[in-house]
Amino acid sequence: MIHYILQIIALQLLFLVTYDLFLKKETFFNWNRTYLLITPILSFLLPLIRLDFISQNIPAAYIIQLPEVLITNSPMQVHLLPEVVIGSESNLSSYISMIPIFGYLWYLGITASLFLFLYKVFKIFKLKKTGTKINTKNITLVSLPNTTTAFSFFNTIYIGTNLSQNKKTNVLLHEKIHVREYHSIDLIFFEILRILFWFNPLIYIYQNRMTMLQEYIADAKAIAETSKKEYYQDLLSQVFQTEKISFINTFFNHSLIKNRLVMLQKSKSRKIFQLKYLLLVPVVCSMLIYTSCTEDANAQLTDNSKSISKSEGTILNNIAELKESIAAKGEMTEEERKALKELLLLTTKNGFSEPFFKDVIADAEIPFGVIEKVPVYPGCENLSKKEAKKCFSKNVAQFIGSEFNTGIGKELKLSGRQKILVKFKIDNLGNITDVHARGPLPTLEAEAVRVINQLPKMTPGVQDGVNVGVMYSLPIVFEIKE
Question: Is 242 in contact with 186 (CB distance < 8 Å)?
Fold first, then answer.
């Protein structure tokens, strides 16, 4: 969920930056209005879209990804997550600890934002009740005594009696356009987003951009129906009292006056500049590629069993570059010769049975997608490849759960979840080698390395009748429950 929200915020930031840099100063007001309404919706939808044909054409890694192992400092029982979980027994305190504190804050913020919204609506209806109403065919005009307030909300225009007749004429003309264009619906849309995502400052920026744009739209249409000079004078005159409500269209808004005057004097943008809206295409495509190639953290981690797809031309180009590099250097180190020989081993048919490659077979790492027989955990023999893999994952998780020192959590005064990513190799003799860990603390990394090094000797993987090494990646989550 957190990852999804971060993706939404990143997309909205990208859309807003694009708007501010390329679109905000153009006079394509209706296009900009559509942009500001559609892009927040896109930011919610794009992270949910997965295009399989994209992920299928992205090169897969050569490391086997094991299911995540969860370890807690409570009494343990074994499940699969999605095949294997080592967790605590069910009780009220552990259930409560599973609920993120962020959830409580989210609902608290929603409740507060909703009450604030209802209070603003109450203020508007209170004004409507105290004013003098004049009903026309499509608009209700409310005259507010002893004030210079001027704003509209849906099909109701509120205007203070202290305004001069000339100002009232221009204000009514301006606000009627807000009503005809249904601008209140746009602002209510963003108000709903503000309630649901009160913690996201970009929603407030979106609403601010929409408010400014609506003033440009109303000014542009009003100026065509009245004296341009008088309209300018009204904007340049003293800024009057205004209701501070985010979802109403106020005529006298001090922060917008300067921008409105600048936009009124701006020449109409040339149509060719509408091509700027095509900037949405690479933004959307980039996000689709990202989301299609990103695995859900809670989904089952599967083997990266697809081979790398590279065009013949690209491979030939790389080979040519390698030749040039070797020729320029004149000679290779022993390590470089060995690496080149390992590469040749993987690309030679029946290379594992060739005596020429005998000295590098022990160090070669075979892609899991092409290996004939995967490494086997003791006790998991005589099973199918799929069942052997499941048995392997289950036994590794059980072993780690029983050997991991959960007392570290108390010693280090840790809380919540601590994730450690471990990579290790089962070599051609079945031994555990090349163990590396990456985690939040060196102590946790060292403990993970210690436990993995204690795994029993395996039956090694086999390729072309020869024992080979295989790399593994294992995420371990250490959950500290109070």
Answer: no
Determine the Cα–Cα distance for residues 243 and 444; give it in Å rounded to an integer: 56
Q: Does residue 119 sit in helix, strand or coil?
A: helix
Q: Nearest-CA neighbor of 69 among 391, 375, 422?
A: 422
Q: Are 303 and 369 in contact (CB under 8 A)?
A: yes
Q: How far apart are alpha carbons 45 and 47 in whole angstroms? A: 6
* Distance set, CA 428 to CA 195, 469, 470 (Å): 59, 5, 8
Q: Which two tokens stand for residue 291?
A: 């989301």
Enumerate the H helices of 374-435 as residue ranges. 385-403, 408-411
Residue 190 · residue 206 · CB < 8 Å: yes
3-state percent breakdown (helix, strand, coil) of the chain, nearest 5: 50, 15, 30
82 cis-preceded (ω within 30 degrees of 0): yes
379: left (phi > 0), else alpha (psi -120 to 50), else beta?
left
Helix (H, G, I), strand (E, B) or coil at 358: coil
CA-nearest of 455, 457, 480, 325 to 399 is: 455
Cα separation, 65 vs 300, in Å, equals 10
Mean pLDDT per 10-residue segment, the chain (482 residues): 82 90 85 93 86 56 60 44 33 42 82 93 89 87 87 90 81 88 93 93 93 88 73 56 56 61 70 76 77 50 40 63 69 72 66 66 60 85 85 88 86 83 88 90 92 93 80 83 66
* CA 243 to chain CA mean position, Å: 36
Q: Are 160 and 144 in contact (CB under 8 A)?
A: yes
DSSP letter for each residue of 233-281: HHHHS--------TTSEES--HHHHHHHHHHHHSPPPPGGGGGGGGGHH
Beta strand 140-144 with 84-88: parallel, antiparallel or unpaired? unpaired
Say which residues have a Cβ less than 8 Å from residue 380's Cβ, sequence separation at least 6: 387, 388, 391, 392, 395
| Domain assignments of the chain as residue spans, ordered by start | 1-60+270-300, 64-98+371-480, 104-266, 312-351
What tokens does 380 get? 């998991």
Q: What angle do CA 274, 184, 283 make, to 5 degrees?
A: 35
Query: Which backbone phi and psi does 394 adopt, to 5 degrees?
Result: -65, -45
